[in-house]
Specification:
Elements lengths: L3 E11 L2 E12 L3 E5 L6 H9 L5 E9 L2 E2 L5 H7 L1 E4 L6 E5 H11 L9 H14 L10 E2 L5 H15 L3 E5 L7 H13 L6 E5 L3 H4 L6 E6 L2 E6 L1 H10 L2 H7 L10
Parallel strand pairs: 3-10, 3-11, 6-9, 9-10
Antiparallel strand pairs: 1-2, 1-4, 4-5, 7-8, 11-12
Helix pairs in contact: 5-6
């Protein structure tokens, strides 16, 4: 059965201020959806709320993967259910190597007694790192510690490739990447596209979508998705900005105070 991810009427707030004001979105396996919008419209809040960041309180609505209620799950349960978030600013974890982190994460999603063997894990990791043009030494470095911005982003894609999630949320994965790194990261995403996996890409810029062609593009303003279309919508936004959307929909102030 193909993956099916549904967000229905999702509202969320931080410190009593409502940021998400009713998000509706459906992503099926094999689909790539992109969310674009000005700063402060709630895009990154959506990603954090879906993953269960404690700073954000979901006040209404639902989010399900294949019928399972994400909002009733803890953060680690959401990850085991198949949700993956590649963050704009990945955290550094001193004392935990890349390889130890990834093997533990893979085994956490497996039944007891069916853990991945060390040899199989090493072979898979070496292949994925080669595909991403990552130095093999990064496997033994502490997670993201001392990594450049581009290295952190490649590392996020490595984690995605190893964990093989059902739904991938990429929160401004293109931020801080030069053109070569952008191509490598995009190739990593494209290689993972399948009927068993859906993508939600949050970005400000068309340039990422030049390498990862979305099936659907959504414009987010005032904590809501206000317009949807195909790849041509992203191109128009790149060329003309967001003013025409605001004029078309009669939006005066597009910000809600969060990214």
């Amino acid at each position: 059965m193909a993956t099916h991810f549904v967000i229905d009427g999702l509202k969320a707030e931080i410190e009593g201020k409502e940021i998400l004001k009713g998000i509706n979105l459906e992503i099926k396996g094999g689909e790539i959806h992109a969310i674009m919008g000005p700063n402060g419209t709630g895009k990154s809040t959506l990603a954090s709320a879906l993953m269960g960041h404690p700073k954000y309180e979901v006040t209404e609505g639902s989010a399900t993967i294949d019928g399972e209620d994400l909002l009733e799950m803890s953060v680690d349960e959401r990850a085991r259910a198949g949700l993956f978030l590649a963050m704009q600013y990945p955290s550094e974890i001193p004392g935990v190597t890349n390889s130890d982190f990834l093997r533990s994460a893979i085994n956490a999603r497996r039944e007891e007694g069916s853990e991945i063997s060390l040899i199989k894990f090493i072979r898979q990791m070496e292949k994925k790192m080669k595909d991403l043009e990552m130095n093999p030494e990064f496997a033994h470095r502490y997670l993201n510690e001392g990594f450049s911005g581009g290295e952190k982003k490649r590392n996020e894609i490595l984690q995605m490739a190893m964990l093989e999630p059902k739904i991938v949320v990429l929160d401004e994965i293109d931020s801080g990447l030069d053109i070569d790194a952008l191509k490598i990261v995009s190739n990593g995403v494209n290689a993972m596209r399948s009927e068993d996996r859906g993508f939600l890409i949050i970005t400000h810029y068309q340039r990422l979508l030049n390498y990862i062609t979305p099936d659907f593009v959504h414009v987010m303003m005032q904590g809501r998705i206000v317009k949807s279309g195909g790849p041509e919508l992203a191109e128009r936004l790149e060329n003309e900005g967001y003013d025409w959307v605001k004029e078309e929909l009669g939006i005066v102030d597009e910000t809600v105070g969060q990214a």
